[in-house]
Structure prediction request, 180 residues.
Amino acid sequence: MNSDKEKLLLHVCCAPCSIYVINQLLDKFDLMVYFFNPNIFPEEEYIQRQSEIKKFCQSVRISFYEEDYEPHLWLNFINGYENEPEKGFRCDLCFLFRLGKAAEFAKANDFDWFGTTLTMGRQKNSLQVLNAGRKAENKYRIKFWDQDFKKNCGVQVSDWLANKLGLYKQDYCGCVFSKH
Prediction:
């Protein structure tokens, strides 16, 4: 990371959702990809998603940082809300937990911005994600790039890119409670 552009830490959850977003932001920012997803279950799924996005970042020479996989921290954070429906309060907590960690890391490491690819997820409510990002922005005093990447055919372009690159595409959000 050494350019005249502002620095953005991009929280990612998986390669298919990330590649379109990375391509959208690469010209605007000096970018680092940040993988913090203790919600992903089982561990094999976590490893698969982490491996795909890390491989993509290496191929396009983008910095990549991964936090330790500690699902017990996430489970403690959402404790009591396990039975919430998808897009319910458990998801609000999940987004807040992960984006709070991203904002904290970005602030501690002198980034100008932080953002997330979570708005790309088909199973995700973009407004919930953006609200969590704004809360983290206020708490950690670092700017949040609050773009809904699903808009303007983002999902379709992302699907096309993922298919073209032969990326693994999961069929659930990631947590044990969303697995069908």
Summary: The radius of gyration is 15 Å. The mean pLDDT is 93. Strands lie at 7-12, 30-35, 63-66, 113-116, 143-144.
